[in-house]
Design brief:
The complex is a heterodimer of chains A (260) and B (850).
Chain A (H helix, E strand, L loop, with lengths): L4 H13 L3 E12 L6 E12 L3 E5 L6 H8 L7 E6 L2 E2 L5 H11 E4 L11 H12 L5 H11 L14 H13 L5 E5 L7 H18 L3 E4 L3 H4 L4 E6 L2 E7 L3 H13 L1
Parallel strand pairs in A: 3-8, 3-9, 6-7, 7-8
Antiparallel strand pairs in A: 1-2, 1-4, 4-5, 9-10
Helix pairs in contact in A: 4-6, 5-6, 6-7
Chain B lengths: L1 H10 L1 H39 L5 E5 L15 H8 L3 E12 L1 E3 L13 E5 L10 E6 L7 E5 H6 L7 E5 L5 E11 L8 E5 L1 H8 L6 E6 L5 H8 L7 E5 H48 L1 H9 L4 H40 L13 H26 L23 H22 L3 H34 L1 H6 L1 H11 L3 H39 L4 E5 L11 H7 L4 E14 L2 E8 L1 H4 L7 E3 L3 H4 L4 E5 H6 L7 E5 L5 E10 L11 E4 H7 L5 E8 L5 H11 L5 E5 H44 L1 H9 L4 H37 L11 H28 L2 H5 L3
Parallel strand pairs in B: 4-9, 6-8, 14-19, 16-18
Antiparallel strand pairs in B: 1-10, 1-11, 2-4, 2-10, 3-7, 5-8, 6-9, 7-8, 12-20, 12-21, 13-14, 13-20, 15-18, 16-19, 17-18
Helix pairs in contact in B: 1-9, 2-7, 2-9, 2-10, 2-22, 7-10, 7-15, 7-22, 9-10, 11-12, 12-15, 12-24, 14-24, 15-22, 15-24, 15-25, 22-24, 22-25, 24-25
Classes of the chains: A alpha/beta (260), B alpha+beta (850).
């Protein structure tokens, strides 16, 4: 995909008028503690997550990447700045409002899968719909189970599944509500490299085929290389941004960021 | 390692406290029981010491027949002889602790529950012998004067100079209050005191002689010496005791009665401790498995198995000691609570200042600590099986016990052994002690067996009792149902603790239903009268004078009105019950189930006796046999057996020997009626009831009831005992609720990350609370589902053993439903704190929780 500078300029100009950004953050700061013990996890971060794209957030540990994702997902409150999801400002929402927001707009994929051990794979996938009291769309659930490749193991409990399979179930669970944005927190952090590749391919597939807007926090260059856009964080700031890149490029960028 | 144990416990304060609470209650029950009963005993000791503090010897009637209404009295003439003795400084005849009821403004007796109404007759010139200490006014002297206790004066608004009624063996008389008093160092509870001069008391009580003569020795003469001097001069049927011996023997008699209460309460304390042991076992087991990684790390650092085991044991020992100390202290408060409980069921006992005996401290601390350490033993042993590798493994779980496969067999063996002991106790053994021992031990084994097997029952039971949650509580309910079977062993142990309390409650209720029925059956079979007249006072020891029956008999429309007097007599060397009837009238109010003889015997009873068939069998009596008895005042009465009858095994109104009123009145002191039965033309109806009530108005001390109302009331008395048991068993249920709280708190803690995930994917706080609550309710219902049938089954066994007593098996459906609802409420209550904790979890922190 090579586009002329002209095209990029136009599209950027367009995106500022057309709300193609489903998650926007403006001037986010997050600090913990006070005085000498004060730690600035985020310093004046602004960004817009593109709709239907896979955005990766990378950075060395302590760079604030997880904090950023938590704030974007409404799990944490910024010290300063605002976050909007689907055009709604969430920074000042109550717990009940945030819960509703999560039901409708957000999907999560966790590093440790976090499946309920007493439910089967299929039951785990349907769980968000049940919690929200929404009648599950049978065909959609079916399609998801096939897409993530666990339709043959739907009656198995998490303890009977491999790590990769568990993470696939977890991805299906995140997709089942057709969320506005899916947040994946180190989705391959607990998987071996082969399994990681499968899971990443699945995430990429959901972006390409389902148009699922996805934000992924990772420190794995292989994972980041699958993203459409990669943001590098260091010391609580976005210090670099690159578009689709190879793993080697990502690694180089990462080293550049860390070396600074 | 000790440091690790202590630090570990301090780091888990909430858990340690919740665990400890399970033992605190049981220990508090034990210490509270001892404190209460010791305090009551001390109060009685004080009363008796006060009674004889100024006397050296006490001359009293010598008991001939045990448990008789009256013992022989001391002839009045003997007082002069005692006074004339050279070593006697002073002597007085008098009446101590007799029954004299005060009568209030409304003409009704002043009684507080079943607290005693005590009457005294003391020589005013020798008032030092009065156990009462005067607080205002002066001693009663002369026929119109009385001293009453300060408690009654303030409760019923009497002052010196007021007039108050009093009644012993005769109609109500009226007296001027000239003084107020109390017994020093004792709160007498609801008891009333009325003190008269000797002659007035004698007139009220209708006693021929004195209850006792007290004498003070001259200085330098010992109590024993004076007693020895008096002994040869004693009239027949009297005895002399030093006041010290007299006080001791009186106190010992009270102590004998108090023992039953002590053992009863201790048994309930023991049950609470047993339930507490389950809770401790479960909590420490969960803690150990949650600490798998920590324990494994210790192993990698070089800790030996022994050290690991010791660290867990030390932790339970520390909890045990701390909880026992708290329990011991809480016993002080609980003693007050128990006393209040007894007051509400009419047992108003005297109080002294609180007594905490060394025995109380030792037993409470040892019981609490030993139970806790024993309960911690299995988890401690399991802790040693944690392999070091678990330190580096994510999600490592406790290895299964090697003996796990034996468990069903152990459970079955325990249960069978328990059942065998229970059956042996119920059907084969005799002697109250042995039977209770077997029943107690057997029941404990049955409970343990069921608890062991219950982990296999959790799944099927949860499938049934979890149905409403799954059906009506949405996803939260479905998740709760799934959560409740996640760790069946844990759910089982939690539910088993509740099961014990529920089973005992169900047992008591079922047995009670059977007893209620047997009481009404037995009474309905016996009493054919239309009305029954009973003493007003709930004090069962206050029979009424025989005037009532005579008054009623004279009314038009009354076919028969006749009293039933009873006392005890000595026959075949033993005290046995005896009753007196009016042979002409009794047949028309009572149905005899004749064995030998018939209704015709009654008219010609004369010097004859009607004897209970089983008593007759034991003593080889049949119609025509001679039967000699001795009355409580030493009269020898020769009777012939004229008939034998089958008295019902449950609630017989008639004792072993029944004789005519005429013979009875001449030989037994102060005959009084326990009941009067009335038959009327046309049966009971409202008009006749009103007529009878009107006729009885002058008699302050009796109530008239229709036969059916009376029978119902008698059956209801069973309920009072049941209520007392329910309250005491509530303690065990509360302990098991602590266990439920504990398990849930630990589960919330353990599932922190999972709960965070649920919140992250859209679960509301309300759903979260509901999920925890439903899990708790399901656990509680499993406990009820185990306990209710078990209790009913044990009660079925017990009623089977009591069929000869006419006790049948009746399923108290209403009560059982209520118990199940209470279990649900307990589940909801237990979930409050854990649910709140779960709902308040910070989603982000929970997700990052390791």
């Amino acid at each position: 995909m090579s586009a002329s500078p002209m095209y990029e300029e136009v599209s950027e100009a367009l995106s500022s008028v057309r709300p193609s950004a489903v998650v926007t953050a403006d001037g986010l700061s997050k600090c913990y503690g006070e005085g000498d013990a004060r730690v600035d996890a985020l310093r004046n971060v602004s960004l817009a997550v593109d709709e239907g794209r896979l955005t990766a957030i990378m950075g060395p540990s302590g760079s604030g990447k997880s904090t950023l994702m938590h704030i974007l997902a409404g799990l944490d409150q910024p010290s300063e700045g605002t976050v909007s999801i689907a055009g709604v400002e969430i920074s000042s929402m109550s717990d009940a409002q945030l819960t509703r927001l999560r039901r409708r707009h957000i999907g999560f994929v966790f590093q440790f899968f976090n499946l309920l051990p007493m439910l089967t794979a299929e039951e785990n996938v349907r769980l968000p719909l049940e919690i929200a009291g929404v009648k599950p769309d049978r065909e959609w659930v079916e399609e998801l189970l096939v897409t993530v490749g666990i339709d043959g193991r739907r009656k198995h409990r998490p303890s009977e599944l491999s790590g990769g399979q568990q993470q696939r179930v977890s991805i299906a669970r995140a997709l089942v509500t057709r969320p506005t944005v899916l947040f994946a927190d180190e989705p391959t952090g607990n998987l071996d490299s082969t399994t990681s590749r499968d899971v990443l391919a699945l995430l990429r597939h959901s972006v390409d085929e389902l148009g699922q807007t996805t934000v992924m926090v990772t420190h794995d260059p292989q994972a980041a290389a699958l993203a459409d856009r990669i943001l590098f964080l260091a010391d609580g700031r976005i210090v670099k941004e690159i578009r689709e890149s190879t793993a080697a490029e990502v690694l180089a960028a990462m080293q550049e960021v860390t070396g600074r | 390692m000790i440091k690790v144990a202590i630090k570990g416990m301090l780091g888990r304060k909430t858990r340690a406290i919740l665990t400890g609470l399970a033992i605190v209650l049981g220990v508090a029950m034990i210490s509270g029981t001892y404190i209460l009963t010791d305090t009551i005993q001390q109060a009685f000791n004080n009363v008796f010491q006060a009674s004889y503090r100024n006397s050296s010897v006490v001359i009293g009637g010598k008991q001939i027949v045990a448990e008789a209404n009256n013992d022989p009295t001391v002839p009045r003439s003997f007082l002069a002889k005692v006074r004339a003795m050279p070593d006697v400084a002073a002597a007085a005849g008098g009446y101590l602790f007799d029954q004299i009821e005060l009568v209030g403004h409304d003409g009704k007796g002043i009684t507080n529950g079943s607290a005693p109404t005590l009457g005294f007759g003391v020589d005013p010139s020798e008032s030092r012998f009065n156990p009462i200490t005067l607080t205002a006014g002066r001693w009663a002297s002369g026929p119109g004067e009385v001293v009453i206790d300060t408690g009654t004066a303030s409760r019923d608004h009497y002052r010196i100079g007021d007039t108050i009624g009093a009644k012993g063996d005769g109609p109500v008389g009226y007296y001027t209050i000239v003084g107020l008093g109390k017994i020093k160092g004792v709160s007498i509870g609801g008891a009333t005191l009325a003190s008269f001069d000797t002659a007035t008391a004698q007139a009220i009580l209708h006693k021929p002689g004195y209850d006792g003569i007290v004498a003070a020795a001259k200085p330098g003469i010992s109590q024993a010496h004076l007693a020895d001097e008096i002994r040869p001069l004693l009239p027949p049927h009297t005895q002399v005791r030093t006041s010290e011996a007299q006080a001791k023997s009186s106190a010992a008699q009270v102590a004998k009665g108090g023992k039953v209460i002590t053992y009863l309460l201790l048994a309930f304390g023991g049950i609470a401790l047993f339930v507490g042991a389950f809770v401790i076992f479960n909590t420490i087991s969960i803690t150990v498995s949650q600490r798998t990684r920590e324990l494994a790390t210790l192993r990698t650092l070089g800790a030996s198995r022994r050290q690991v085991r010791r660290s867990v044991l030390i932790e339970s020992a520390l909890i045990g000691v701390a909880a026992s100390v708290v329990g011991l202290a809480s016993g002080l408060g609980l003693a007050k609570g128990l006393n209040a409980l007894f007051q509400t069921v009419g047992l108003d006992l005297p109080q002294a200042s609180t007594v905490v005996a060394p025995r109380t401290i030792i037993v409470s601390l040892l019981a609490g600590t030993i139970v806790t350490v024993l309960a911690g033993l299995f988890p401690a042993i399991r802790a040693t099986r944690v392999p070091a590798i678990s330190a580096v493994r994510e999600g490592a779980v406790m290895p299964k016990s090697r003996r796990a496969s034996w468990r069903p067999y152990i459970a079955a063996a325990t249960m069978l052994l328990g059942l065998a002991l229970v059956a042996d106790g119920l059907f084969a053994s005799s002697g109250v002690g042995a039977v209770l021992m077997l029943l107690g031990l057997g029941t404990l084994l049955v409970f343990s067996g069921v608890a062991l097997v219950s982990s296999y029952l959790v799944r099927p039971l949860a499938a049934v009792v979890g149905l409403p949650a799954r059906r009506f509580a949405g996803t939260a309910g479905r998740l709760a149902a799934a959560n409740s079977v996640r760790n069946t062993g844990r759910t089982a142990a939690t539910a088993a603790a509740l099961m014990i309390g529920v089973a005992l409650v169900a047992f008591v209720a079922t047995l009670g239903a059977g007893l209620r029925n047997s009481v009404s059956d037995a009474l309905n079979k016996q009493v054919t009268a239309d009305y029954v007249v009973t003493p007003n006072s709930t004090n069962s020891n206050s029979p009424f004078p025989t005037g009532e029956a005579k008054t009623l008999a004279a009314l038009p429309g009354v076919r028969a009105a006749t009293g039933l007097s009873s006392d005890r007599a000595k026959a075949f060397g033993k005290s046995t019950g005896i009753a007196a009837i009016d042979p002409a009238a009794f047949g028309s109010v009572y149905h005899f189930a004749w064995k030998q003889g018939s209704e015709a015997v009654l008219s010609g009873l004369g010097n004859g006796a009607i004897v209970d068939s089983s008593y007759a069998g034991t003593h080889h009596l049949s119609v025509g046999s001679p039967l000699t008895i001795e009355s409580p005042i030493g009269r020898i009465v020769r009777l012939d057996v004229k008939a034998t009858f089958h008295a019902p095994q449950a609630d017989p109104l008639l004792p072993n020997i029944v004789i005519s009123k005429q013979v009875f009145d001449g030989n037994f002191p102060q005959p009084k009626d326990e009941y009067a039965f009335v038959s009327v033309d046309g049966g009971a109806n409202a008009r006749t009831t009103a007529k009878l009530q009107h006729a009885l108005a002058p008699f302050a001390d009796t109530t008239v009831q229709t036969q059916s109302a009376w029978v119902a009331a008698q059956a209801q008395t069973v309920n009072q005992t049941l209520d007392l048991f329910y309250v005491l068993l509530a303690l065990s249920v509360i302990v098991s609720v602590f266990g439920m709280v504990n398990t849930l708190v630990l589960a919330v803690f353990e599932r922190t990350r999972e709960l965070g995930m649920l919140r992250a994917i859209g679960m509301t706080r309300r759903q979260m609370r509901r999920m925890i609550r439903q899990e708790s309710v399901i656990t509680a219902l499993i406990g009820a589902a185990l306990g209710l049938p078990l209790g009913v089954f044990l009660a079925a066994l017990a009623t089977r053993a009591m069929t000869s007593l006419g006790v049948g098996f009746h399923l108290p459906i209403n009560e059982l439903v209520v118990f199940a609802l209470i279990a649900v409420a307990a589940g909801i209550g237990a979930a409050v704190i854990p649910a709140r904790r779960a709902a308040r979890l910070n989603v982000l922190a929970a997700l990052q929780y390791e």
